[in-house]
Specification:
Blueprint lengths: L5 H12 L26 E5 L2 E5 L10 H17 L4 H13 L5 E2 L3 E3 L2 E7 L7 E6 L7 E5 H4 L7 E7 L5 E7 L7 E7 L4 E10 L3 E3 L5 E7 L5 E8 L7 E5 L6 E6 L5 E7 L4 E7 L8 E2 L8 E7 L2 E7 L7 E6 L10 E4 L5 E8 L3 E8 L2 E8 L5 E4 L7 E4 L9 E8 L2 E9 L4 E7 L11 E9 L5 E9 L10 E4 L17 H4 L4 E5 L9 H5 L7 H16 L8 E6 L1 H12 L6 E5 L5 H6 L10 H4 L5 H7 L15 E7 L8 H13 L6 E6 L10 H18 L5
Parallel strand pairs: 34-35, 34-36, 36-37, 37-38, 38-39
Antiparallel strand pairs: 1-2, 3-5, 4-5, 5-6, 6-7, 8-9, 9-10, 10-11, 12-13, 13-14, 14-15, 16-17, 17-18, 18-19, 20-21, 21-22, 22-23, 24-25, 25-26, 26-27, 28-29, 29-30, 30-31, 32-33, 33-35
């Protein structure tokens, strides 16, 4: 038998896809399609702690290898062949999702230093246009950046943000055309002419700060492993080499630079997952030497905000995991005897952060999985709570840059309530609605039921879950369901409005969001109980949520789809190994599934600083524990669900090779006729397609896969 080359194989698949496909009423199986691509096995042997591992697909990490690229293209062609019968469905889904976007839209203007700043979108355009008006929202519009022009001719584009000098004439902006969220180019635009200055910082990490002199800029630079480790100073127009002002030498730490809300301080924040340290200089003294505010301590984190009266600081240590808030004097703050506790530690309420204004402080807390905002008058200590009307929701600060503001901006949303922006008047203690997200194709929140459920985990812990579905649905186990979660890094899985998911909900799906351990949904202990040597709780919590949905007749194993991305993709891989029979469909986006190989390679991005998340596999105990759940290493001969794995060739956070290897190995072991697909975006990074409409095409593809695997072809 002759072996087809990848290019020939891909061509045959594409030609085959041109045939008229039958309308799908039942899910087709692997036997109904051509055989998928087969990645050659090129065994590479690893020896760690007396154990031997053989990795047949280690070679796939090399994207400079033409064989790797050919294989990825063959996989993409195969995915298109399998999904050819869903082309009309994908188009329908895309049109539905696009119909929920107001194509011509504008953000609520935000006041900062004499100007109102906002962004707007124009019909048919993929990217935003950033504008401002001087003194009044009725003043003439100034266009600062048109992302559509910056993205012309580019397959990917990300605008990382911009910051304007104190005299309002120069904007420093960061962007890239790789789709990366870790590496950017820094440029400077003269807002009087609309032209970029010749100064260009070719590679930086995203954080930057203007000094008060309107010409000095501090910026962060990552190393090759994408650890933000150096802060440089650049002077506009200078031909001198940029000055290194700080280097973070501890490989567990990243460093970032920014300017405070008061505009008085430039700060460098160094942080690991368990410790932090801040350095400061006056913003009007860019040549001063950065001095340490408080030295780093093991298992201690703080965040400090300057104020004319001194400082306000959140503080976390082993006895105050959910944080407390202190007031510190202008001088003598190094002596803890001078600290005044103004918000005590509460084991049932995690302080997410504080926003300090001239006369007020807003404290954002997480209580029982829901966000709460308290407004404290600094002079009197009087505290009021912003009230929210629904039992399941999320609310969060929306950015109020003006230090002297007496109104605080926040967003409110729930699974069936489009995001709404409010201004809270801190003097009058009342909220004013500014803008509710419009759904042009129509949306009636009252047509949907939202509930909060509690599953019982393997160890008896109660795990919260939010669900939404069409009212009138019968709870008989016949309903399809999509269960989503993340469960890592302390990131909470808040139940906010996702317009896209209603393309499933309106087809009879239950949509569920599980708040599992590893996130900090129920406080910092919730996070600690889902990392390192307790990581397995993340996976068993998710399984418990799935079982609860089934036992309560919201769905069944034949109707249950699951979805997660990045570390949530690790979740997908782990639970699929632990309970493959529990799920019908798995969509793993940019999944972190090759955990042991990645964590053993300190040259890869983000590895060493994540030892505090996953453990250091150079230590035998950590190696042994990671090996109990690493998805790639725990694949076995068994029946697996239908699986779609996605990735981005330019992904700097989870290498494209991780989903590629995972799929290749699954295919050699699975004993079923279910479909396993790999879809690699050859132009994108970790976030997938960057245009607002291109992203919807990716979502439509994913949803069409779920629907088709359940025999729902319309």
């Amino acid at each position: 038998m002759k072996t087809l080359t990848y290019s020939t194989f891909a061509l045959l698949l594409i030609l085959g896809a041109c045939k008229t496909a039958p309308e799908q009423t039942t899910a087709l199986t692997q036997a109904d399609y051509p055989a998928p691509p087969v990645a050659p096995k090129k065994p590479q042997v690893f020896n760690n702690h007396g154990y031997t591992r053989t990795d047949d697909y280690f070679w796939l990490r090399d994207k400079t290898n033409p064989e790797t690229i050919a294989y990825l293209k063959a996989e993409n062609a195969y995915a298109d062949t399998v999904m050819a019968a869903t082309k009309d469905l994908q188009k329908t889904l895309f049109d539905e999702m696009k119909g929920r976007i107001k194509e011509e839209d504008q953000s609520v203007p935000s006041y900062d230093n004499s100007y109102y700043y906002y962004s707007r979108d124009e019909k048919g355009k993929q990217y935003s246009i950033h504008c401002r008006r001087k003194g009044s929202i009725d003043a003439p519009e100034e266009i600062l950046f048109d992302e559509n022009k910056l993205a012309e001719g580019k397959s990917a584009f990300i605008m990382g943000g911009y910051d304007v000098s104190d005299n309002n004439t120069i904007a420093a902006y960061v962007s890239n055309t790789t789709g990366s969220y870790a590496e950017f180019e820094l440029r400077f635009r003269d807002l009087r002419t609309g032209k970029d200055l010749p100064d260009v910082i070719a590679r930086m990490g995203g954080s930057m700060a203007w000094a008060a002199d309107n010409k000095t800029v501090f910026y962060a630079v990552p190393n090759q492993a994408l650890r933000s480790h150096k802060i440089f100073k650049h002077v506009l127009g200078s031909t001198a080499k940029d000055e290194l002002v700080y280097e973070e030498k501890d490989e567990l730490f990243n460093c970032y630079v920014g300017r405070s809300k008061t505009k008085k301080v430039i700060a460098i924040a160094s942080s690991s997952f368990t410790s932090s340290e801040t350095r400061m200089i006056p913003a009007d003294q860019p040549n001063a030497k950065f001095t340490i505010f408080l030295p780093r301590q093991k298992d201690t984190e703080y965040s400090v905000k300057d104020h004319p009266t001194g400082f306000y600081m959140t503080w976390k240590d082993v006895n105050n995991k959910n944080q407390k808030v202190y007031q510190l004097p202008k001088t003598g703050y190094q002596d803890r005897a001078n600290w005044k506790e103004i918000v005590a530690h509460d084991p049932k309420a995690k302080i997410e952060g504080i926003d300090v204004f001239e006369k007020y402080m807003v404290i954002t807390k997480r209580i029982n999985g829901l966000l709460e905002m308290n407004v404290r008058e600094l002079a009197t200590g009087t505290t009021k709570t912003i009230n929210f009307p629904e039992p399941v929701y999320t609310a969060y600060p929306n950015g109020t840059p003006d230090f002297n503001a007496t109104k605080f901006r926040y967003s409110y949303t729930s699974l069936n309530r489009p995001t709404t922006i409010y201004d809270y008047d801190m003097i009058k203690n009342e909220s004013a609605k500014l803008k509710e997200r419009e759904v042009p194709s129509g949306f009636n929140a009252d047509e949907y039921e939202v509930k909060r459920l509690w599953a019982t985990a393997k160890d008896g812990v109660k795990v919260p879950m939010a669900i939404v579905y069409k009212k009138g649905m019968n709870l008989d186990g016949s309903n399809p369901c999509l269960l989503y979660s993340y469960g890592s890094y302390g990131y909470s899985s808040d139940a906010g409005f996702n317009a896209n998911v209603f393309s499933l909900v309106n087809r009879g799906f239950v949509y569920a969001v599980a708040q599992i351990r590893g996130g900090s949904d129920l406080g910092e202990q919730w996070y600690d109980d889902g990392k390192l040597q307790k990581k397995m709780n993340t996976f068993t919590d998710f399984i418990a949520c799935a079982e609860h949905l089934i036992s309560e007749k919201y769905t069944s194993t034949e109707k249950l789809a699951i979805n997660g991305g990045s570390a949530g993709g690790l979740l997908m891989g782990a639970v699929t190994n632990l309970r493959p029979e529990l799920f019908k469909v798995v969509v793993a986006e940019v999944p972190f599934v090759d955990v042991i190989n990645t964590m053993l390679d300190s040259t890869l991005p983000l590895t060493t600083q994540e030892y505090e998340q996953w453990g250091n596999p150079n230590v035998k105990a950590d190696y042994d524990y990671i090996m109990t759940y690493s998805p790639y290493d725990n694949l076995k001969k068994t029946n697996y669900p239908n699986i779609l794995a996605t990735g981005g060739l330019n992904d700097s956070q989870v290498g494209f090779h991780e989903p590629a290897k995972w799929v290749a190995k699954i295919r050699t072991l699975k004993t079923d006729q279910n479909i396993t697909l790999l879809k690699i975006n050859m132009d994108s990074g970790h976030g997938g397609s960057t245009g607002r409409f291109d992203y919807l095409k990716d979502e439509a593809f994913n949803y069409a896969f779920i629907l088709s695997r359940m025999g729902m072809g319309k």
